[in-house]
Amino acid sequence: MDGNSSTAIDICGHISRYYFNNTREIFSVIIAGQKMYIVTSPKDISTVYKNPQNLAFDGFVKDMYARFGMSPMGVEKMFAPILLKHDTALDAGGQQRAHLGTGVQKEQLHPGPNLDDLIKVYLGYIEPQMDMGRIPESCIVRSSGDSKVVSLRNWCSAVLGAATIEAFFGTTLLELNPQLPEDFHIFDVNSWMFLYQYPRGAAKAMFNSLERTTRAFTRYFDLPIKERSQACHYIRTLEAKQRDAGISSRVIAISTQGMF
Q: For the segment 69-96, what is each residue's pLDDT rounded down to a tens digit?
Protein backbone atom coordinates (compact mmCIF):
# COMPACT_ATOMS: atom_id res chain seq x y z
CA MET A 1 0.00 0.00 0.00
CA ASP A 2 1.34 3.43 -0.89
CA GLY A 3 1.87 6.35 1.44
CA ASN A 4 -1.28 8.27 0.48
CA SER A 5 -3.75 5.42 0.88
CA SER A 6 -2.04 3.97 3.96
CA THR A 7 -2.15 7.42 5.61
CA ALA A 8 -5.87 7.65 4.90
CA ILE A 9 -6.44 4.23 6.49
CA ASP A 10 -4.27 5.21 9.48
CA ILE A 11 -6.41 8.32 9.99
CA CYS A 12 -9.60 6.24 9.80
CA GLY A 13 -8.14 3.86 12.38
CA HIS A 14 -7.32 6.67 14.81
CA ILE A 15 -10.75 8.25 14.37
CA SER A 16 -12.46 4.93 15.01
CA ARG A 17 -10.56 4.43 18.26
CA TYR A 18 -11.68 7.85 19.46
CA TYR A 19 -15.28 7.58 18.19
CA PHE A 20 -15.85 3.99 19.38
CA ASN A 21 -13.85 4.35 22.60
CA ASN A 22 -11.22 1.93 21.31
CA THR A 23 -13.70 -0.98 21.11
CA ARG A 24 -12.25 -2.02 17.72
CA GLU A 25 -15.71 -2.39 16.20
CA ILE A 26 -15.94 -2.90 12.44
CA PHE A 27 -17.14 0.26 10.70
CA SER A 28 -17.57 1.57 7.16
CA VAL A 29 -16.65 4.80 5.38
CA ILE A 30 -17.41 6.11 1.92
CA ILE A 31 -14.31 7.24 0.01
CA ALA A 32 -14.51 8.51 -3.56
CA GLY A 33 -18.04 7.12 -3.80
CA GLN A 34 -17.03 3.63 -2.69
CA LYS A 35 -18.05 2.02 0.58
CA MET A 36 -15.13 0.52 2.48
CA TYR A 37 -15.26 -1.59 5.64
CA ILE A 38 -12.44 -0.98 8.12
CA VAL A 39 -11.38 -3.93 10.29
CA THR A 40 -8.88 -3.18 13.08
CA SER A 41 -9.35 -5.94 15.65
CA PRO A 42 -6.83 -8.82 15.30
CA LYS A 43 -9.65 -11.26 16.03
CA ASP A 44 -11.85 -9.83 13.26
CA ILE A 45 -8.94 -9.70 10.81
CA SER A 46 -8.27 -13.39 11.49
CA THR A 47 -11.95 -14.17 10.91
CA VAL A 48 -11.94 -12.32 7.56
CA TYR A 49 -8.83 -14.22 6.46
CA LYS A 50 -10.27 -17.60 7.41
CA ASN A 51 -13.67 -17.13 5.77
CA PRO A 52 -13.19 -16.32 2.07
CA GLN A 53 -16.31 -18.35 1.20
CA ASN A 54 -18.60 -16.34 3.51
CA LEU A 55 -17.05 -12.93 2.86
CA ALA A 56 -17.10 -12.55 -0.92
CA PHE A 57 -15.20 -9.86 -2.82
CA ASP A 58 -16.23 -11.11 -6.25
CA GLY A 59 -17.57 -7.80 -7.53
CA PHE A 60 -14.38 -5.99 -6.58
CA VAL A 61 -12.14 -8.73 -8.00
CA LYS A 62 -14.02 -8.84 -11.31
CA ASP A 63 -13.70 -5.07 -11.62
CA MET A 64 -9.96 -5.24 -10.88
CA TYR A 65 -9.46 -8.03 -13.42
CA ALA A 66 -11.23 -6.00 -16.10
CA ARG A 67 -9.25 -2.85 -15.34
CA PHE A 68 -5.99 -4.85 -15.38
CA GLY A 69 -6.91 -5.71 -18.98
CA MET A 70 -8.57 -9.12 -18.68
CA SER A 71 -11.16 -9.88 -21.37
CA PRO A 72 -14.83 -10.48 -20.41
CA MET A 73 -14.41 -14.12 -21.48
CA GLY A 74 -11.37 -14.43 -19.25
CA VAL A 75 -13.26 -13.04 -16.26
CA GLU A 76 -16.14 -15.44 -16.98
CA LYS A 77 -13.79 -18.44 -17.04
CA MET A 78 -12.09 -17.37 -13.81
CA PHE A 79 -15.45 -17.40 -12.02
CA ALA A 80 -16.90 -20.53 -13.67
CA PRO A 81 -17.29 -23.52 -11.28
CA ILE A 82 -14.52 -26.11 -11.51
CA LEU A 83 -15.54 -29.47 -12.91
CA LEU A 84 -14.34 -32.36 -10.78
CA LYS A 85 -11.42 -34.08 -12.52
CA HIS A 86 -8.94 -34.89 -9.80
CA ASP A 87 -9.20 -36.33 -6.33
CA THR A 88 -7.75 -33.34 -4.50
CA ALA A 89 -8.98 -30.90 -1.89
CA LEU A 90 -8.75 -28.07 -4.44
CA ASP A 91 -11.39 -29.71 -6.60
CA ALA A 92 -14.24 -29.14 -4.16
CA GLY A 93 -17.46 -29.09 -6.15
CA GLY A 94 -18.44 -25.68 -7.48
CA GLN A 95 -15.29 -23.87 -6.41
CA GLN A 96 -14.19 -21.10 -8.77
CA ARG A 97 -10.66 -20.60 -10.07
CA ALA A 98 -10.65 -17.01 -8.87
CA HIS A 99 -11.05 -18.36 -5.32
CA LEU A 100 -8.27 -20.95 -5.45
CA GLY A 101 -5.55 -18.49 -4.48
CA THR A 102 -6.34 -18.44 -0.76
CA GLY A 103 -6.28 -22.22 -0.37
CA VAL A 104 -3.11 -22.71 -2.43
CA GLN A 105 -1.49 -19.78 -0.62
CA LYS A 106 -2.01 -21.59 2.68
CA GLU A 107 -0.48 -24.75 1.22
CA GLN A 108 2.56 -22.71 0.15
CA LEU A 109 3.03 -20.47 3.17
CA HIS A 110 2.04 -22.65 6.12
CA PRO A 111 4.90 -24.57 7.81
CA GLY A 112 5.99 -27.56 5.73
CA PRO A 113 8.09 -28.56 2.71
CA ASN A 114 6.53 -25.99 0.37
CA LEU A 115 7.39 -23.12 2.70
CA ASP A 116 10.87 -24.55 3.36
CA ASP A 117 11.59 -24.58 -0.39
CA LEU A 118 10.37 -20.99 -0.75
CA ILE A 119 12.47 -19.74 2.18
CA LYS A 120 15.57 -21.47 0.86
CA VAL A 121 15.39 -19.64 -2.47
CA TYR A 122 14.33 -16.35 -0.84
CA LEU A 123 17.19 -16.21 1.64
CA GLY A 124 19.60 -17.60 -0.93
CA TYR A 125 18.94 -14.53 -3.06
CA ILE A 126 19.12 -12.01 -0.21
CA GLU A 127 22.33 -13.17 1.47
CA PRO A 128 24.78 -12.17 -1.30
CA GLN A 129 22.98 -8.83 -1.71
CA MET A 130 24.04 -7.85 1.82
CA ASP A 131 27.58 -7.21 0.52
CA MET A 132 28.39 -3.49 0.36
CA GLY A 133 29.70 -3.85 -3.17
CA ARG A 134 26.38 -5.25 -4.44
CA ILE A 135 24.06 -2.52 -3.19
CA PRO A 136 22.09 -1.27 -6.24
CA GLU A 137 23.02 2.25 -7.30
CA SER A 138 19.35 3.26 -7.22
CA CYS A 139 19.34 2.62 -3.46
CA ILE A 140 22.39 4.72 -2.56
CA VAL A 141 21.53 8.20 -1.29
CA ARG A 142 25.15 9.25 -0.87
CA SER A 143 28.53 7.64 -0.28
CA SER A 144 31.83 8.73 1.20
CA GLY A 145 34.90 6.53 1.41
CA ASP A 146 33.90 3.18 2.85
CA SER A 147 30.44 4.34 3.99
CA LYS A 148 27.15 4.45 2.11
CA VAL A 149 23.80 5.92 3.09
CA VAL A 150 21.10 3.68 1.65
CA SER A 151 17.39 4.24 1.20
CA LEU A 152 15.82 1.33 3.08
CA ARG A 153 12.61 1.64 1.09
CA ASN A 154 14.42 1.47 -2.24
CA TRP A 155 16.62 -1.39 -1.06
CA CYS A 156 13.62 -3.41 0.09
CA SER A 157 11.88 -2.75 -3.21
CA ALA A 158 14.91 -3.76 -5.28
CA VAL A 159 16.29 -6.67 -3.25
CA LEU A 160 13.31 -8.12 -1.39
CA GLY A 161 11.14 -7.60 -4.47
CA ALA A 162 13.57 -9.53 -6.66
CA ALA A 163 13.96 -12.22 -3.98
CA THR A 164 10.18 -12.71 -3.87
CA ILE A 165 9.95 -12.95 -7.66
CA GLU A 166 12.76 -15.51 -7.82
CA ALA A 167 11.31 -17.53 -4.93
CA PHE A 168 7.90 -17.81 -6.61
CA PHE A 169 8.85 -17.91 -10.30
CA GLY A 170 12.48 -19.00 -10.40
CA THR A 171 15.05 -17.01 -12.39
CA THR A 172 13.11 -16.92 -15.68
CA LEU A 173 10.75 -14.02 -14.98
CA LEU A 174 13.57 -11.66 -13.98
CA GLU A 175 15.50 -12.71 -17.05
CA LEU A 176 12.53 -11.63 -19.18
CA ASN A 177 12.33 -8.28 -17.41
CA PRO A 178 15.22 -7.40 -15.06
CA GLN A 179 13.42 -4.13 -14.20
CA LEU A 180 10.35 -5.91 -12.85
CA PRO A 181 11.03 -5.02 -9.16
CA GLU A 182 11.19 -1.36 -10.17
CA ASP A 183 7.93 -1.68 -12.12
CA PHE A 184 6.31 -3.29 -9.07
CA HIS A 185 7.57 -0.40 -6.96
CA ILE A 186 6.25 2.26 -9.35
CA PHE A 187 2.83 0.64 -9.46
CA ASP A 188 2.75 0.14 -5.68
CA VAL A 189 3.53 3.79 -4.99
CA ASN A 190 0.86 4.95 -7.44
CA SER A 191 -1.72 2.18 -6.96
CA TRP A 192 -4.12 4.59 -5.26
CA MET A 193 -4.55 6.21 -8.69
CA PHE A 194 -5.59 2.84 -10.08
CA LEU A 195 -8.12 2.27 -7.29
CA TYR A 196 -9.60 5.74 -7.76
CA GLN A 197 -9.70 5.23 -11.56
CA TYR A 198 -7.42 8.07 -12.61
CA PRO A 199 -7.33 8.57 -16.39
CA ARG A 200 -4.20 7.46 -18.21
CA GLY A 201 -3.11 11.02 -18.92
CA ALA A 202 -2.90 11.74 -15.19
CA ALA A 203 -1.22 8.46 -14.23
CA LYS A 204 1.18 7.59 -17.08
CA ALA A 205 3.92 6.12 -14.87
CA MET A 206 1.46 3.80 -13.13
CA PHE A 207 -0.15 2.57 -16.37
CA ASN A 208 3.20 2.12 -18.12
CA SER A 209 4.58 0.02 -15.24
CA LEU A 210 1.39 -2.06 -15.21
CA GLU A 211 1.64 -2.75 -18.95
CA ARG A 212 5.32 -3.72 -18.72
CA THR A 213 4.50 -6.09 -15.87
CA THR A 214 1.62 -7.68 -17.79
CA ARG A 215 3.83 -8.21 -20.84
CA ALA A 216 6.54 -9.87 -18.74
CA PHE A 217 4.07 -12.19 -16.98
CA THR A 218 2.40 -13.09 -20.28
CA ARG A 219 5.74 -13.92 -21.92
CA TYR A 220 6.59 -16.02 -18.87
CA PHE A 221 3.41 -18.12 -19.09
CA ASP A 222 3.84 -18.44 -22.87
CA LEU A 223 7.10 -20.31 -22.33
CA PRO A 224 7.12 -24.13 -22.20
CA ILE A 225 6.86 -25.37 -18.60
CA LYS A 226 10.26 -27.08 -18.88
CA GLU A 227 11.84 -23.63 -19.35
CA ARG A 228 10.37 -22.35 -16.08
CA SER A 229 10.44 -25.48 -13.94
CA GLN A 230 11.75 -23.52 -10.92
CA ALA A 231 8.30 -22.10 -10.21
CA CYS A 232 7.00 -22.84 -6.71
CA HIS A 233 4.00 -25.01 -5.79
CA TYR A 234 1.69 -21.97 -5.63
CA ILE A 235 2.39 -20.86 -9.22
CA ARG A 236 2.42 -24.37 -10.69
CA THR A 237 -0.89 -25.33 -9.06
CA LEU A 238 -2.81 -22.18 -10.00
CA GLU A 239 -1.59 -22.34 -13.58
CA ALA A 240 -2.56 -26.02 -13.93
CA LYS A 241 -6.10 -25.31 -12.69
CA GLN A 242 -6.50 -22.46 -15.15
CA ARG A 243 -5.05 -24.38 -18.10
CA ASP A 244 -7.67 -27.08 -17.42
CA ALA A 245 -10.31 -24.54 -18.46
CA GLY A 246 -8.43 -23.43 -21.57
CA ILE A 247 -7.52 -20.09 -20.01
CA SER A 248 -4.95 -18.10 -22.01
CA SER A 249 -1.49 -17.06 -20.86
CA ARG A 250 -2.56 -13.40 -20.73
CA VAL A 251 -5.50 -14.14 -18.41
CA ILE A 252 -3.26 -16.29 -16.19
CA ALA A 253 -0.70 -13.47 -16.19
CA ILE A 254 -3.24 -10.86 -15.11
CA SER A 255 -4.77 -13.03 -12.37
CA THR A 256 -1.30 -13.90 -11.06
CA GLN A 257 0.14 -10.39 -11.05
CA GLY A 258 -3.03 -9.18 -9.35
CA MET A 259 -2.20 -11.45 -6.40
CA PHE A 260 1.22 -9.87 -6.10
A: 898 888 888 888 776 554 444 444 556 7
Query: In whole numbers, what is the pLDDT of the chain averaged over residues?
Result: 82
Q: Is the pLDDT of residue 252 over 70?
A: yes
Q: Looking at the DSSP assignment, which residues form a beta bridge with residue 30?
A: 35
- Name the packing angle between helices 113-129 and 233-243 (round to 10°): 120
Dihedral (CA of 68, 70, 72, 77) sign? negative
Do residues 123 and 117 touch, judged by C-beta distance below 8 A?
no
Distance CA 96, CA 82 (A): 6
d(CA 62, CA 75): 7
CA atoms within 13 A on the CB side of 47: 9
Grouping H, G, I as helix, E, B as strand and the rest as coil, residue 69 is coil
Asked if 171 and 230 touch (Cβ cutoff 8 Å), the reply is: yes
- Comparing CA positions, the residue from 170, 215, 164 lying closest to residue 185 is 164
Confidence of residue 31 (pLDDT cuts 50, 70, 90): low
Q: Do the strands 27-31 and 34-38 form a parallel or antiparallel pair, or are they unpaired?
A: antiparallel
Predicted confidence at residue 88, as pLDDT, reads 47
Give bridge partners of residue 144 from the DSSP assignment.
Answer: 147
pTM: 0.75
